[in-house]
Amino acid sequence: MLALALSGCSSHGAASTDGGGAATPATPPAASNGSAPSQPTGVGVQQVDVAPTHVLGFPLLVGLTVQAKDSRASVNGLPLPGLDSLAGVEVTLTRRGETEPAAHRAANPMVDEELGLFGFDLRPGEQRRLLFDASIALPEGLAPGPYQLRIRYADEDQLIAAPTDAEPPVSIELLAPTPPQQAQLAALKPELDQVRTWGRWTALPPADPSPPSLRRDDPLRYHVLLRHLGDRRALLSTLDLDVLERLGSSLEPEAALLRAELLAARGDAEGLTRQAEHIRARFPGLQARLEAIEAGRSEHRAAHPSDPWVP
Fold it and tell me: Cys-Cys link to 79, which of 52, 88, 151, 306 (CB 3.0-4.6 A)?
């Protein structure tokens, strides 16, 4: 299991990156017997993206980019965390200056589709960005203030080593919701109680079917957008592309992928080609999902949000 010290504002990488998850792997040493150099095995973490603040009661989104270390072998059956699942993810939150965790959730690396615990495979050397909601691990009643957050990820066979265990966790500020945010949470509580997680909330039909006008200060803006896209496939053809800029820097990869899907839905082949080139160069962890969009398959439908698309 690999411990990740999350970077306080946008991203943290285990290797040098290009800002979108691409990393330059270390050159393996030559074998002493003169044979070809050995390849590292398993999965490594390339980058983690998380916002430096979190409004209590709302989703805490973490973007994790993993990569198959061996350029000649695939890695199969990795746990797939998502907007309503922390499969393979361990979350520990400790108030600054204290030693006992204020919140802790151990990793569940199981992959069992019958239980809703989905998995995914990595092709040789492939990267994959995973987006999940760490707020699932946070109990009610946490006090606002400065905290230390540590995330770990591992698969069933513990393929991921732990070279960064000694690194300190990142500082994150937990904020109390403002009065308007409190009113927003209160209004949505009946729906949230019904489905239990914000991820499942995105599968509910929106009360107002008109295109959303996302606010940059809304901690729920990404989920609001997904909820509308899941309910109305036609919205992909009418939504203003400019609203994607309001998702924020930590969700820049998701905004880029949504832009590609909007262009595909509009039949803008030239625009999709340009956007696909941008994604492949900047966010290689989105390659597999981009291929699905190019093949005409949409991730955004009124279905369980953790159901993986089928390549």
Answer: 88
Q: Check residue 203 and give left, alpha or beta (phi > 0: left; psi -120 to 50: alpha).
A: alpha
> Do 153 and 64 touch, CB atoms closer than 8 A?
yes
Residue 82's nearest CA partner among 57, 108, 103 is: 108
Q: Check if the beta carbon of residue 222 is closer than 8 Å to that of residue 212.
A: no
Tokens 């030239």 belong to residue? 270
Encode pLDDT of 93-143 as tens digits.
999 999 999 999 988 777 666 666 678 999 999 999 999 999 999 999 999
Give me the torsion for CA of 82, 83, 87, 92, rounded to 10°.
Answer: 120
Helices (H) and strands (E) in the chain, counts: 7, 12
Cα(9)–Cα(21) distance, integer angstroms: 15
- How far is the C-alpha of 184 from the C-alpha of 198, rounded, in Å? 13
Q: What value, to the nearest 5°, has the Cα angle with vertex 280 and ends 91 and 44?
A: 35
Query: How far from the centroid of its chain's Cα atoms is residue 72's Cα?
Result: 26
Q: What is the dihedral of CA 1, 151, 82, 122, to 10 degrees?
A: -40
> If DSSP codes are grouped into helix, strand and coil, which group holds residue 217?
coil
The token duo for 93 is 């939150």
> How do residues 47-98 score in pLDDT, each as one tens digit?
778 899 999 999 999 888 888 888 898 988 888 899 998 988 888 999 999 9
Contact 236, 261 (CB under 8 A): yes
| Separation of alpha carbons 130 and 283, rounded Å | 12
- pTM value? 0.80
Which secondary-structure segment (H or E) carries 174?
A: strand 170-175
Residue 164 CA: distances (Å) to CA of 15, 148, 190, 297: 12, 16, 41, 38
